[in-house]
Design goal:
Helix content: 40-55%
Strand content: 15-25%
Structural class: alpha/beta
Order of helices and strands: EHHEHHEHHEEHEEHEEHHH
Distance between the termini: 46 Å
Number of strands: 9
Radius of gyration: 22 Å
Shape: globular
Number of helices: 11
Length: 274
C-alpha cells in the first residue's frame, strides 16, 4: 500500500498508542474500495470515525512488539510466537468484558491493559512505560577458556560493565551496570565469555498519562512459559483489585513491595513445577 506524503504526515499526528490501529483501519478501508494509494482525505475520514466510535475499538488489551523479527542485529531471543501466546492469555481472561462491567461510561483506549515486548535492551517498543514490559536478555558467563586479553569485550560494552583485568585474570564484570545485552558474548573471539542464562527481563507497572510511572523490574531472567504464567497472575490480580478503570500501575504502586514479593513467590513456584 502506497501512502501520499501528506497522508503519511497526518497519520503521524495521531497519538503513538493508537497510530498503528489508525493506519490499519485506513489501509483496510482503501483496500476494500479497490485502491492502492492512501490519500489525506482517507486518513482524516478514518480518524473521525475512530474518535466518534472509540469504545468499539477497545479490545481490553494491547500487545506491542519491536522490530526484532524483521532482521534487527541486536535481537537476543527469537520467539515470534510469544506475542500470540500473550494475546491468548488476554482473550481467555476476557478483559473487554471485565472493562464493560467495571468502567463507568464509555470505554477508552487508555483503559486497556498494555504489554510491550522488546527483543533487546534497546527497548524500541518502550516496555518501561507499559503495564508489563518484557526485554530479551542474555547474561554473560566466564568460561574456562583462557582470555587473550584483546579487550574486544571492553570496547563493545556501552555500559562499562566489563573490563580486562590488568593482572591477567581475564574479563571482570560489574553486574549492577550490566543490562544483559549479550554484546560482549558475540565480541569475544576466544569464547572466554559465553552465554549463561537467557530469557526475559520483566518490568511491572509502568504508565504515562497525568501521573506517569516507570515500570519496576522483577529481579531475574524468565523463560517464555514463566513469563506467560506471571502475566496471567498479574491479569488476575488486576481483575480482582481494579475498580472503575483503575490502571494496573496504580495497583502496583499502592501495594508496594508486597506485590513484588507475591510475584517473586509465584515465579519460584512456577520454576519449581517446571
Amino acid at each position: 500500500m502506497k501512502w501520499q506524503a501528506d497522508a503519511e504526515a497526518e497519520v503521524k499526528k495521531a497519538p503513538f498508542f493508537v497510530r498503528k490501529r489508525v493506519r490499519q483501519r485506513v489501509e483496510a478501508q482503501v483496500s476494500a474500495e479497490g485502491r492502492q494509494v492512501v490519500t489525506l482525505d482517507d486518513v482524516q475520514a478514518a480518524k473521525k470515525r475512530f474518535l466518534s466510535r472509540m469504545s468499539e475499538e477497545v479490545q481490553g488489551f494491547q500487545v506491542e512488539a519491536c522490530f526484532g523479527s524483521q532482521g534487527c542485529p541486536n535481537r537476543i531471543i527469537e520467539d515470534s510466537g510469544l506475542v500470540r501466546s500473550i494475546e491468548k492469555v488476554f482473550l481467555e481472561q476476557d478483559l473487554r468484558g471485565f472493562l464493560e462491567r467495571t468502567v463507568p461510561g464509555p470505554l477508552k483506549l487508555h483503559h486497556e491493559f498494555r504489554v510491550a515486548l522488546a527483543d533487546c535492551p534497546n527497548a524500541c517498543s518502550q516496555p518501561q512505560i507499559k503495564d508489563i514490559g518484557l526485554i530479551g536478555a542474555a547474561a554473560p558467563l566466564r568460561t574456562e577458556i583462557p582470555c587473550s586479553e584483546c579487550g574486544a569485550c571492553q570496547d563493545v560494552c556501552r555500559e562499562g560493565a566489563v573490563a580486562v583485568d590488568p593482572v591477567g585474570h581475564g574479563p571482570v564484570f560489574e553486574w549492577d551496570r550490566c543490562v544483559r545485552c549479550g554484546q560482549c558474548i558475540g565480541a569475544c573471539p576466544t569464547g572466554t565469555i559465553g552465554c549463561g542464562e537467557r530469557g526475559y527481563r520483566l518490568l511491572i507497572g509502568g504508565k504515562l498519562g497525568r501521573h506517569p510511572r516507570l515500570a519496576e523490574e522483577l529481579p531475574g531472567l524468565y523463560d517464555a512459559d514463566t513469563v506467560l504464567h506471571l502475566l496471567e497472575f498479574c491479569v488476575r490480580y488486576y481483575k480482582e483489585h481494579s475498580k472503575g478503570g483503575e490502571r494496573f500501575a496504580a495497583l502496583v504502586e499502592r501495594a508496594g513491595p508486597a506485590f513484588f514479593d507475591l510475584l517473586s513467590a509465584e515465579a519460584r513456584h512456577c520454576r519449581k513445577d517446571a
